[in-house]
Design goal:
By secondary structure, the chain is α/β, with parallel strands linked by helices. It is built from 13 helices and 8 strands. Helix 1 crosses helix 2, helix 2 runs antiparallel to helix 3 and helix 5 runs antiparallel to helix 6. About 2% of the residues have low confidence. Bound molecules: S-adenosylmethionine. S-adenosylmethionine (SAM) binds next to helix 1 and strand 2.
Amino acid sequence: MHPDSDLGPALRYLVPLSAGAPPERLRPVRELSLVDPACGTMHFGLVAFDLLAEMYREELVRAGTPGWPLKASVDTESEIPAAIIENNIFGIDIDLRAVQLSALTLYLKAKRLNKMAKIRDHNLACADVMPFSTADLGRFIIQMRFSNPIFEKMLRRIREQLGDIQQVGSLLRIERELQSLVEEQRRKDEQKRQAKYGTAPGLFAAQDGIEMEAGYYGMLETQLVQALDFFRQQSANEGDDKRFFTGEATKSLRVLDLFLRRYDVVLANPPYMSRRSMNDEMAAFLDTNYPEAKGDLYAAFISRCAELAGETGRVGMITQQSFMFISSYEKLRLGLLQTFAIETMAHTGPHAFPEIQGEKVNTTAFVLRRETDAARRTQNVGTYIRLVHAPDADAKRVAFEQALEALKVIQA
Ligand SMILES: C[S@@+](CC[C@H](N)C(=O)[O-])C[C@H]1O[C@@H](n2cnc3c(N)ncnc32)[C@H](O)[C@@H]1O
């Protein structure tokens, strides 16, 4: 939120920070991004939608005044719902039904604000990508005769990354190698462009780092998806069904698009799966890719969410509490403390979810802020609310609300 925003008092569960939030580069609302990498039916995104709508409205009123953008992100209030879906909310899940439901609920939410809203696209992706055949890939590449080698390199690298592992979904760091590949090609293309047209800044010169790659990648992705579509139709005309190959390749490109970005806010209530319940492939995948968090899927998701957070990004999660105490998560804790400041934590403990019985599921909800300034990080004082002794979800909510009131009085 903008530091001069009037929206704070209306946010019932906004935890006051003891030292306030550090200053950040001010950006128009349309540039703020939020992702849930295990979005399910997007409950977090739906709540964020309402706040973002208020932020767009406030910006419309205050744009042009000191400290606010010269021009608002949208020209009229009626453009807000489509702008939120197209610019701000991102989601990924391995469950296709959940992704479809998320798209539908966001669409209905937007239509409720403006029946005439024209929603052109959304930023949701299903990460249940299955390895496609290398023979089909070879045929596609021969048939399309791409002039730019990046297309072939990208698809081959993606296919390698997918390996034979399914169901790792958002934990697959599909962007890691692709990032340097895309960046290298972007640089070559820019050099060629400069040699031809001179040294004026190119299309992506104003952006930086990963955002620049994401912009360039968007262009490549559009062309590849069109080529895949063409290949599917052409094969069908010849009586050859290539829907599986083109479908999975397209899916992987969409997932890659979302993972090439870094976000202002990463939110998740990730899946839990202890090592005992994993199959051998999944356990081996975590051993290799998330050694600091291999004991449970939720812990690997903490690592993954942390890396998706941008330069001053926040990570807000509700997870099992064990990563805070168990010695096997020491590296995970150290890694977090070396990168993030803990802004708030509500340690909810057992019985936080009415539908989960017993003492086994002990949870904690927290917000971390990526903090590159080491002094600010180490001197940070978080706000912690201990709710472990409240016996059920209702009692925890009441205790949380009382703690918030007390904090507001102290800080007034
Ligand atoms: C506890 S639910 C999250 C619910 C969500 N916050 C909502 O609003 O509905 C966990 C979600 O993680 C998804 N999931 C499980 N494994 C995943 C993976 N490896 N990658 C991405 N999503 C995954 C499940 O399909 C499920 O929707």
